[in-house]
Specification:
The complex is a heterodimer of chains A (about 350) and B (about 575).
Chain A (H helix, E strand, L loop, with lengths): L6 E2 L4 E3 L4 E3 L7 E3 L14 E4 L1 H11 L5 E3 L5 E4 L2 E7 L7 E7 L2 E5 L21 E6 L11 H17 L3 E5 L5 H8 L7 E3 L1 H5 L2 H5 L8 E2 L2 H6 L5 E4 L15 E6 L6 H7 L3 E3 L7 H11 L3 E7 L1 H12 L2 E4 L30
Parallel strand pairs in A: 3-4, 4-5, 5-6, 10-11, 11-18, 12-15, 12-16, 13-14, 13-15, 16-17, 18-19
Antiparallel strand pairs in A: 1-2, 2-3, 7-8, 8-9, 9-10
Chain B lengths: L1 H11 L4 H14 L2 H11 L10 H12 L3 H11 L2 H8 L14 H13 L3 H14 L2 H11 L9 H12 L3 H7 L8 H7 L21 E2 L16 H8 L5 E7 L2 E7 L11 E5 L10 H7 L6 E11 L2 E2 L2 H9 L5 H6 L2 E11 L2 E2 L5 H15 L4 E3 L8 H9 L6 E8 L13 E5 L3 E12 L8 E9 L10 E7 L5 H13 L1 E5 L2 E4 L4 E6 L1 E4 L7 E4 L2 E5 L11 H12 L7
The chains are: A alpha/beta (about 350), B alpha+beta (about 575).
The complex binds zinc ion (ZN) (2 copies).
């Protein structure tokens, strides 16, 4: 039976044959990092292997000085007794899956991924393998994403409607990935776009990679005054309900997340609108990936692991089981990435 | 249906009542009278019957989506609402652009009504047809309508105000027009639009909107809890001298309006009508009160309380409940649990609306009416004589012995208002009973709390917790009383301390102690503990207590004995 070439340890996913950890959550000797989100990238490791874009995010975001072996997607590298390559995951800029080949067997660790198109990163590429470790953040059939065109149509209509009423529009979106995707999707001709400092800091890797984004200004008092009543402001969720928001009143607020597909979380967020924009695969995307990979064994991590693996086993006859990693266990605080709602603690004051 | 489901989404996506009211008003203004009438019926809480039981709905959804039932249940548990879950998992509708648009009225007349008349397979067929032509938002509303559970967080008050705004009528007048029966017909909807003073053909059974008292604790300002004590000084400072106020006992019964008008019927019990505060017709359960009322003059409306009453004093509320539970008129039970109508206001006399007259004047009319009626069943709720607030506080402290809930304070020269308007009527209840109980289970909430564990099960020890064999016995469920912040922390506790899951409910480790406050306690064969608490709520989280310091069943039973026969009351 083909099982995974990686196994969970207290520091992260350990690959014996390559002598590396994949997305470790504690400092280790050698780390392969799938992408720059904080629940996948840990500073303090001896050396790193990552895609060039992720490498630049690691340097800018975490100030990592350790050597990073930049491995272009599709290129192979012999590591230990294994062959390692990275393949686009379509999650955020630079995100990749990790393919490990050793002793005649191939394992793919997807990291976070989505199968829907996204102008800010290379599209997901399905990789054939014997064993697959997939995420399942949205691993229930209640999650099916609407098309990008429909969603951004709604975003633009909302923004335009607010401009007509002399109101600013604030979109809460995670500062790395989601924020840039929103920027790339909106119709910049509607009005000026301002970004929170946390979002602004994460624009550099996108400019460096030549991703076309509309012109933005930092959301400082001066800029807020000049564009009052017309602006689209993009801020991380942690800004909700803080005094920082005051300079934008009157404003309408929205949250961009896959969780917005559910009315309950929409209400819980206490925003005026919820836009279903996810950087993770929906139910159909997950199933499609599992089936096209041809994997004989599927490990499931992140989110609805128990449900998704049971479905694979009982309904599709695929050998599958949950694999415990930190992301599916004790997420302490709200990270910039999407987590299951139970861990979604609203920002202070945002949900009263 | 598109327009209506858009309205529901709009109502759903804001917590501001002004925005809700605006959305409703614009809907009512544009609505076709037939659809508008259905919308009014839905939003004013006219009971929708459950057409398809949850289990069947889930099974059919499972079949239509091709997903195993366990997975549908998992989705339900993640989404928190079955109607929404099913709307999300079904395949998108195959409807072409030329498909006819269904109105809300069509949904009721062509879908829901036929469903009520058919068997399981017929229901399944209609459901599948409906699914194939409705989009996700419409399906959500449709499921809410057929599951008899349409809670979407709109207060009736907002609906009344929205209609008043839409049709430019005074909100009080609109509340009156919406009182009592409402048939969802285009005529009924159009009648709501009539200009003020031109009420088209009024219904002889129509009650007036109830005036509701505010809890005196709210004098303490926001953030006060119902278990806080209000000092007499505060009451005096805010309400002025005691002599300006009429005090009455707050009866532990059912608030009701008794209507006696010609045109209701001719035989003795049909010449009058009883409405509960929730505007349900409760006449059937209390025929002797109707008979007594048939002697009142035409055009009389009394406000009061139905109280179980024997040998000159009230009985606990549970006695009354037994009467309400029986739909059939059982003479024996009626003898067993005698009731009276404790009248405390008159809203209409000789067909004239008295609500604008001062209370003291209305009470004179009431006294005359009751003197003339000479009925033991129609009693005057006698004022509690007093000259100072201290005297009233002393009187209030006797409440439990008298089997009443406390005092009502009414400004002597106030009109009879509509709804809960602060200022003229206050309820000054006795402190509730409390018990310290251990949380043993939790369930996801509803509506805006659907993704949170907000409903908890509490237990008491069956013997001294030091005893090795001591076990926890569930005694009550409660979901109110906590702040949002506290709910969040309890929600996290539940998720981190789950020991078992059963659908949306969880069994949790018995670690957290809560002080439960409640209005009464009674025996119950339906509860494992043999006891039931009345209106339990969480007074506070007792983080200072360990589970072993929670109360025992023996303590609860002692409260029961006290409640049944309070000391000082001979019966
Ligand atoms: Zn991520
Ligand atoms: Zn992640």
């Amino acid at each position: 039976m083909a099982k995974l070439l990686v196994e969970p340890t207290e520091k992260g996913l350990w690959c014996e044959s390559a002598c590396v950890h994949v997305d470790p959550w504690r400092p280790v000797e050698a780390a392969v990092v799938t992408h720059g989100h904080a629940d996948h990238a840990t500073p303090g490791c001896g050396r790193y292997i990552a895609s060039p874009e992720t490498a630049s995010i690691l340097r800018i975001r975490y100030g990592i000085k350790a050597p990073i072996d930049e491995l272009a997607p599709g290129e192979f590298r012999d590591v230990g007794s294994a062959r390692v390559s990275l393949h686009p995951a379509g999650h955020i800029l630079g995100s990749t899956q990790v393919r490990i080949e050793a002793s005649g067997s191939v394992t793919v660790v997807t990291g976070d991924y989505k199968t829907d198109p996204d102008p800010t990163c290379t599209p997901f590429e399905c990789v054939e393998c014997d064993a697959l470790l997939t995420e399942s953040t949205f691993g229930l059939p209640a999650f099916k994403w609407p098309s990008d065109a429909d969603v951004f149509d709604a975003v633009n209509r909302w923004w335009r409607g607010n401009v007509e009423q002399g109101m600013n529009s604030v979109v809460f979106a995670y500062s790395l990935g989601k924020a840039q995707r929103v920027l790339a999707g909106v119709d910049a001709s509607i009005g000026p776009i301002l970004v929170h400092g946390a979002v602004d800091n994460m624009l550099a890797p996108y400019h460096e990679a030549g991703i076309g984004l509309p012109e933005t200004r930092k959301a400082l008092v001066e800029a807020a005054k000049e564009s009052a009543g017309r602006a689209l402001i993009i801020a991380p969720p942690s800004a909700a309900g803080t005094p920082w928001m005051r300079k934008f009143t009157p404003c309408s607020t929205a949250f961009a997340s896959g969780w917005m597909a559910v009315r309950g979380t929409r209400r819980w967020r206490a925003v005026d609108r919820g836009f279903v924009i996810s950087d993770h695969a929906d139910w159909d995307g997950l199933l499609d990936t599992v089936q096209r990979s041809g994997a004989k064994f599927v490990g499931v991590t992140h989110g609805y692991t128990r449900q998704f693996s049971r479905y694979l086993r009982d309904e599709l006859g695929i050998d599958a089981e949950p694999v415990a990693t930190r992301y599916s266990g004790e997420g302490e605080s709200e990270s910039e990435d999407e987590q299951v709602p139970s861990k979604q603690v609203p920002a202070s004051g945002g949900a009263s | 249906m598109k327009r209506f489901s858009r309205l529901v989404t709009e109502l759903d996506s804001t917590t501001k009542s002004s925005a809700k009211q605006a959305a409703l008003a614009s809907y009512f203004r544009e609505a076709d009278p037939a659809d508008g009438a259905w919308a009014v019926a839905i939003f004013t809480g006219r009971r929708l019957k459950r057409v398809v039981p949850y289990k069947e709905l889930r099974a059919l959804a499972s079949e239509a989506s091709g997903l195993p039932e366990w997975l549908v249940r998992e989705c339900h548990s993640a989404v928190g609402d079955l109607s929404e879950t099913i709307s999300l998992i079904l395949p998108r509708p195959q409807k072409g652009d030329d498909a006819p648009e269904r109105t809300l009225t069509d949904i009721f007349e062509q879908r829901i009504r036929p469903m009520q008349r058919t068997d399981t397979s017929g229901k399944a067929r209609i459901l599948r047809e409906s699914w194939s032509e409705l989009d996700a938002d419409e399906r959500y509303v449709f499921h809410k309508l057929i599951s008899g559970n349409f809670r979407i967080g709109v207060q009736k008050r907002s609906v009344v105000r929205a209609l008043a705004e839409a049709f430019e009528v005074d909100p009080g007048v609109m509340a009156h027009r919406l009182s009592g029966r409402f048939e969802p017909t285009p005529e009924a909807f159009d009648a709501l639009k009539a200009p003020e003073g031109e009420d088209p053909g009024s219904d002889a059974a129509r009650p007036y909107p109830f005036y509701l008292a505010s809890p005196i604790e709210t004098l303490l300002g926001t953030g006060a809890s119902s278990t806080d004590t209000v000092p007499v000084e505060t009451i005096e400072a805010q309400l002025g001298p005691a002599w300006g106020w009429i005090a009455e006992w707050k009866w532990d019964g059912i608030r009701a309006q008794l209507i006696r008008r010609d045109g209701l019927g001719s035989d003795s019990i049909h010449r009058a009508m009883l409405w509960s505060r929730g505007e349900e017709e409760i006449a059937e359960s209390f025929p002797e009160i109707l008979s007594a009322a048939s002697e009142l003059p035409h055009g009389t409306v009394l406000d009061g309380e139905i109280v179980a009453f024997e040998h000159g004093s009230p009985l606990p509320f549970q006695a009354l409940q037994r009467r309400l539970q029986r739909k059939q008129r059982e003479a024996l039970l009626f003898q067993d649990v005698p009731v009276v109508f404790m009248a405390y206001d008159v809203l209409e006399h000789e067909g004239e609306d008295l609500r604008e007259r001062p209370l003291s004047e209305r009470l004179e009319v009431l006294n005359r009416l009751l003197d003339r009626a000479q009925s033991d069943l129609l009693r005057r709720s006698e004022p509690v004589e007093h000259s100072t607030w201290e005297e009233l506080e002393r009187a209030r402290s006797e409440s439990r012995e008298r089997n009443v809930e406390g005092l009502m304070l009414k400004l002597a020269d106030s009109p009879y208002r509509v709804g809960r308007v602060r200022g003229d009527w206050w309820k000054w209840k006795v402190e509730p009973y409390t018990l310290d109980a251990v949380m043993v289970g939790a369930q996801l909430g509803h509506g805006r709390r659907a993704s949170l564990f907000t409903d908890y099960t509490f237990a008491l020890w069956d013997r001294d917790p030091q005893d090795e064999a001591a076990a926890l016995v569930p005694i009550a469920k409660a979901y109110s009383g906590l702040t949002n912040q506290e709910i969040k922390s309890v929600d996290k506790f539940v998720r981190d301390h789950t020991v078992a899951r059963h659908g949306p409910t969880r069994t949790v480790e018995p670690e957290m102690v809560f002080e439960l406050a409640f209005e009464g306690i009674q025996e119950s064969s339906r509860h494992k503990s043999g006891l039931a608490l009345r209106f339990p709520r969480m007074a506070r989280i007792r983080s200072d207590k360990t589970p072993e310091q929670a109360d025992t069943m023996a303590t609860a039973r002692a409260l029961l004995e006290y409640h049944r026969s309070p000391p000082g009351l001979s019966r």
